[in-house]
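Technical note accompanying the year-one report. For the benefit of new consortium partners, we illustrate the data format agreed upon in the data management plan: each record pairs a sequence with a structure-token string. No post-processing was applied to the example shown here.
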Amino acid sequence: LAVAYFFRSSTAGWGALPIINEALERYPDDVEIQLAVGSVYESAGWRQNNGMLERAEDIYRSVVETHPDNVEAHMRLGRALQLKKDWDGAIRELKWCVEHADDRTTRFVTFMLLGETYYQLGDVNGTVQSYRSAFDIDPHCQVAAVALSHALHRAGNWAASREIMGGFLDRNVTSPNGPDEWKRFLSGRRDQLQLVLQEMREEVLR
């Protein structure tokens, strides 16, 4: 699990595949391992490795089938489908997440993914609404501010576009407040690696 998180966060996921596949064989019903392994395939597939996204999709679907209420699995499946350009499937999964997610970070990431998906479809209104929802959750995220501003500009609402960026710059004159959740998501949530390593240390020292 630690190896999976490490390689996922270092954007070199394919290097972990031999090790994490063995983990999946040993613990085929462990949801945390399934999602971690799927995220490594997702990372590799993001970089155009043949068959990797399909493998990630299969793993996420397996989790969704056995744990239909697992919000992260639905979100990850939506991301994999988005990367495969299955826009309808991605929107279906991500909308499910919006309806069922109750934590701030998951809702933020889901709205960012929806914004990306609607942007690719050329749905200006959907793009604006999704990025605005993400920005409302985290008004200190630079990527969300730029994405919303760009979407509003694309929609022809130039005054609102300037207002978003002006307000963002005024609120963030100094360093941003806290870590950027979007970057943490794209980099594989390195904080998860630290938690697993701490658990390993405690087990070894017991």
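Partners are asked to follow this layout when depositing records. The chain is about 75% helix and 0% strand.
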